[in-house]
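User: I'm new to structure prediction. If I give you an amino acid sequence, what do you actually give back? Let's try with this one:
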Amino acid sequence: MEIDEAGPGDIVAVAGLLSVTIGETISDAETPMALPPITVDEPTISMIIRPTIPCCGLEGQFVTSRKLRERLWKEILTNVSIRVEETGSADAFRVSGRGELQLAILIEMMRREGYEMSVGKPTIVTKEIDGKVHEPQEELIVDCPESFVGVVTQKSARAKGA
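Assistant: Good question. You get back a string of structure tokens that encode the predicted 3D arrangement of the chain. For your 162 residues, that looks like this:
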């Protein structure tokens, strides 16, 4: 249903504006008042995705780096927590996300859509702050019966939990 105006909190679809993305404010040109931008947690893990080797292509219908690039750039328009970067290679892309599960879901969706690709081993996204390399940290809160506290502590310690 077409409408002439929408207010804060209204969910609308905008047609005809190509450069508007999720989280941006559309306002009156005479009195522009932007809402604070949405903050999304930075990616914590990345992997290299590239087309499979040329002799493959037996299962997917999209097997070229051009098709893979188009699909990944389409994904970042709607998935605000995914980052895609070009690498030194013309056919490889570094895809970063919030965790292995998020990237696994993206890869499975693409596979079901007919894309064939090879996926590298996940690596941790690090940042350099004041000359020191830092790894991402997550907060874990576990509510469990007292009899399982020891097991939960051991499992989290094995995953470098403090």
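You can read the tokens as a compact description of the fold. Here is one thing that stands out. Helices lie at 65-78, 100-112, 149-158.
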